[in-house]
Amino acid sequence: MKKEKKYTYDYERPALATDTVIFGFDGAQVKVLLTQREREPFKNKWALPGGFVFMEETTEQAAKRLLQEKAGLRNVYIEQLYTFSEVDRDPRERIVAVAYYALVNAHQYEVSAGRDTLKTEWFGLSELPKLAFDHARIIRVAIERLKGKVSYQPVGFELLNEKFTLPQLQTLYEAILEMPIDKRNFRKKILSTGLLFPLEEKEKNVAHKAARYYSFDKRMYKELTKKGFHFEL
Amino acid sequence: MKKEKKYTYDYERPALATDTVIFGFDGAQVKVLLTQREREPFKNKWALPGGFVFMEETTEQAAKRLLQEKAGLRNVYIEQLYTFSEVDRDPRERIVAVAYYALVNAHQYEVSAGRDTLKTEWFGLSELPKLAFDHARIIRVAIERLKGKVSYQPVGFELLNEKFTLPQLQTLYEAILEMPIDKRNFRKKILSTGLLFPLEEKEKNVAHKAARYYSFDKRMYKELTKKGFHFEL
DNA sequence: AACAAAAGTGTATTTTTTACACTAAGAATG
DNA sequence: CATTCTTAGTGTAAAAAATACACTTTTGTT
C-alpha cells in the first residue's frame, strides 16, 4: 500500500482490530477458548484471541489469520458478530473491534493446540475468569447470538465430529439453549429435516446400548438453502 | 484528542465510516432514503447517508450524528447492521464501514426534510437507482435483516404514526415480508399479543367504513421484555 | 336511495407441538 | 451365565397453533 498521506480526510483514526469468540463443546458443556495476555494492559488476564486488521485484508480475513496465529486454528466456521466501538474500551488508545464468533470441534483442536506458543485454555460458560477489555460483554453477546441462531440454522454440527450420535447432538442443543429437551420430540424433529444420515457404525466400548452414528450433509444443506429450504428446530 | 503518535502499533490504518439504510413506509411501499453525491467519486450517483467516525464518538453516535447532518433526522430507531470491510469498497482508499439501519416515520420526516441542503429522496425497494460504492449490497443485507426481525420484534411500529389502523399495519407487514397475509388471522395474532390499544378515534374522510386507530405501548413492551416476554408474529 | 369500497368479525380443519413410559442393547458384576 | 446397571431407541394421544374461508357493517359518493 502507498504510504503517501493523500487521505480523503485527515482526522485521527481509530485503530481497527478483530476479536473472536471461539465456541467449542466437550460433550457436556459449551466452552470458550481464551488466551492469557503476556503484556500490559491486562497482563496475565484472559482475553479473546484478536489483533489488528492489516490494510490488505478484510476483517474476516484478519480474524481467520489471527485464529491461526494465536490458536493454531484453520478452516473454522466463522461469522461476524458485532462491532464494538466504545471510545474507552481499550485504555491505550481508541480501538474499534469487529468481533466474530467461531464454532470449532474442540476434540479435533486439542491435537494441534500443542504447536502454539501462547497459553490458551477452554473455559465453560459458567466458569469464565475475569476478562480483559470489554471481552466479557463480547462473549455475552456471542452467547445470545448462538442461542438465537441454533434454532434456525444448523450451526450445531460445526461443534461436533463429522460422525455424531443423536444423544450427543441433543446434549449440545441442551447446553446451548440451557434447557432440557424431550428426547423423542427432539429426534422426531431433527430427523424430519432429512439432513441427517444414519451410518452403519455404532458407538463402541460404552457400558450400555451403543448409539448409532449419524452424519450431516453440509453440501446438500447448502444446495437446499439455495432452493429456498429453511432449517428449523 | 492528543495528536502525539504513541500508537500501540504503527501500521497504516483503514479509515472508519458509517453508512445507514433508512427505511420508511409511505402507506403502500417500503422505501429507502438516499442522498445524491455532490462530488467524486460517484458524483451524482445516489448513496446511503454516511460519513467518517470521529475519535470521541462511537460508531452508533456517528451514525446518528450523520443522520441528522445529512437528512435532518433526530431520535430515530437505529440498529447496527453489519461491518463491510472489503479492501476495495472505496476507490479512494481503504474505508471500513459499520453499517446501520434506521426505521423512521416517513410522513413525519417529509416536514423537516426541507431544512436540509442536500438532495435526498425516497426510493421504493423495487425502484432503486444505481448506487455508489457497495451500497446496493448494504441495502440488500438490510432488507434481509428487516424481514427476519419483523416477525420476532415489533419493529414495524417505528415506521408508522403513533396512531395507526390495523389495515395500515397489515399493509406494512405485507410490504416488508413481500407476501399477502390473511386479514382475520393477522388481526387475531397481533391483538393477542396484548400490546395494541384500541383508541376511540377512527379514520375520517374515507369513502368507506372508517378504520379504528390503535396505539402501541413501547414502554410496556420494554417492561415485558425484561420479564422474559417474547413478541412473535 | 342505491352503490362502491374497504373494515370488521367467527368457526371448522389441518398442522404442529407437547407430554409421556416402556423395551432393547451392551458392558460390568458376582 | 444370570443379574444388574445404564443409556438408546420407539409411538400415540391430547393440546395448541396455524390456516382457510364469506358475509355484514360503515362511510362517502352518485
Write a structural description.
- Two copies of one chain form a homodimer.
- Chain A is of the alpha+beta class.
- The first copy, chain A, has two domains: 15-149, Nucleoside Triphosphate Pyrophosphohydrolase, CATH 3.90.79; 157-226, Winged helix-like DNA-binding domain superfamily/Winged helix DNA-binding domain (Arc Repressor Mutant, subunit A, Orthogonal Bundle), CATH 1.10.10.
- Chain A is 29% helix and 26% strand.
- The first copy, chain A, contains six helices and ten strands, in the order ββββαββαβαβααββα.
- In chain A, the strands form two sheets. In chain A, strands 1, 2, 3, 4, 5, 6 and 7 form a seven-stranded mixed beta sheet that branches. The first copy, chain A, has a three-stranded antiparallel beta sheet with strand order 8-10-9.
- In chain A, a hairpin with a 4-residue loop joins strand 1 (15-25) and strand 2 (30-36).
- The longest helix of chain A has 16 residues, at 135-150.
- Mean pLDDT of chain A is 91; it is low at 1-7.
- Chain A binds chain B through residues 1, 3, 6-9, 11-16, 52-60, 80, 82-83, 85-87, 92-96, 98, and chain B through 1, 3, 6-9, 11-16, 52-60, 80, 82-83, 85-87, 92-96, 98.
- Chain A binds a DNA duplex (30 and 30 nucleotides) through helix 5.
The CATH superfamily of the largest domain in chain A bears the name: Nucleoside Triphosphate Pyrophosphohydrolase
Mean pLDDT of chain A: 91
Query: What is the total tally of β strands of chain A?
Result: 10
Helix content of chain A: 25-40%
Query: Of all protein chain pairs, which has the greatest interface, and how many residues does each chain bring to it?
Result: A-B, 33 and 33 residues
C-alpha termini separation of chain A: 47 Å
What is the structural class of chain A? alpha+beta
In CATH terms, what is the fold-level topology of the largest domain in chain A?
Answer: Nucleoside Triphosphate Pyrophosphohydrolase
- What's the number of domains of chain A? 2
Q: What is the C-alpha radius of gyration of chain A, as a whole number of Å?
A: 20 Å
Oligomer: homodimer
Shape of chain A: globular
Question: What is the level 1 CATH name of the largest domain in chain A?
Answer: Alpha Beta
How much strand content do the residues of chain A show? Answer: 25-35%
DSSP helical segment count of chain A:
6
What is the CATH architecture annotation of the largest domain in chain A? Alpha-Beta Complex
Question: How are helices and strands ordered from N to C of chain A?
Answer: EEEEHEEHEHEHHEEH
Q: Biggest sheet of chain A: strands, sense, closure?
A: 7 strands, mixed
